[in-house]
Amino acid sequence: MKGRVVVLGTYRGREAAALVVDGRLEDLLVEAADEVDFAPGAILRGTVDRQMKGQGGVFVRLPGTRGFLRETGGLSSGQQILVQVAGHAEPGKALPVSTRLLFKSRLAIVTPAAPGLNVSRRIRDAEERARLEEIAALAMAGSTSGLILRSAAEGSEAEEIAADIAEMRELAEAVLADVSGAPELLVDAPGPHEEAWRDWSDPAPDEIAEGADAFARHGVEEMIDALLTPVVLLSGSAHMAIEPTRALIAVDVNTGADTSPAAGLKANIAAARELPRQLRLRGLGGQVTVDFAPMPKRDRATLDQQLRAAFKGEAAETSLAGWTPLGNFEIQRKRDRRPLAALLGEGAE
């Protein structure tokens, strides 16, 4: 299966979407509506609870649950505010939310908290950027909100872009005017099919496969099954094991039969290149501790470069904390999805 294929179907009775590039699974979205109160992207009206010293933020009363907000400036107890779900909550903890609302469509993002008109840096042609800036200026005239034109807008018809912006602007203005009242869901998070259409359209897919049996026809079910086991095969006999615990994600890299220093570096580079994809597909975030295969300390700089290159461009916020005194490498990755194994009932979070 060559090219870029978006597969829209179901997996174990849940709406799901898969992005397959040259026969390899690159991204996966599985419906989690019955597992979570509100998914990332949902916009809600909430009420600020009293601030608690030492928490580094404030709790917000939401419909049937509570959120945790780190942006506390100018807030007071009992105040009604609009928030957007920013990630998935750890077990037993409040839902992470933000007051920086984003209204996303396929071509544009309206940003009420960040004024100004911006065009994606991926669009490099000067004439095209000027054309898009003119369209954006006309579509956002009189608005106090900002706008980002996404890379998918490149080459699109002016009428299509303007209509897309107008839809998001209208939604944003309606939501911003609805701050008074009891806690309530105002905008639901997109489902997997909608999110795939919105975020995987650039570059344009070579094929869009749909239907009840789409996952089976394109081999996606087998690809997902491989994600439900801890072991990931690397080059040669090398492999890594990815095992979530309550406190962190433990990753162990092994060279297999070849225990030479050269084999250690080779296995570690392969693991570094593969790790972002595995964390993304498995829906894993939080603290990640990697026990790389033994190698000389002088090779750490080479591995650091490989890690930075591998995680560059990842949608989930990721911090490469670096090496610990015991020789492990620590990474902090935002919890942007529900863990796949927990979602499918295959294991604990």
- Supply the CATH class of the largest domain: Alpha Beta
| Shape descriptor | globular
Predict the CATH topology of the largest domain.
Answer: Aminopeptidase
> How many strands, what sense, and barrel or not for the largest sheet?
6 strands, mixed
SSE pattern, N- to C-terminal:
EEEEEEEEEEEHEHEHEHHEEEHEHEEH
How many domains is the backbone divided into? Answer: 4
Strand content: 25-35%
User: Can you name the CATH architecture of the largest domain?
Assistant: 3-Layer(aba) Sandwich
Ranges where pLDDT stays below 50 over 5 or more residues in a row are none
What strand order characterises the main sheet?
15-16-17-18-20-19
Q: Helical percent range?
A: 25-40%
- Count of distinct strands: 20
| Count of helix runs | 8
SS-based class: alpha+beta
Distance linking N and C termini: 33 Å
Mean pLDDT: 94
Query: Rg, please?
Result: 22 Å
Cofactor: Mg(2+)
Pfam families: RNase_E_G
Keywords: Endonuclease, Hydrolase, Magnesium, Metal-binding, Nuclease, RNA-binding
Organism: Albidovulum salinarum
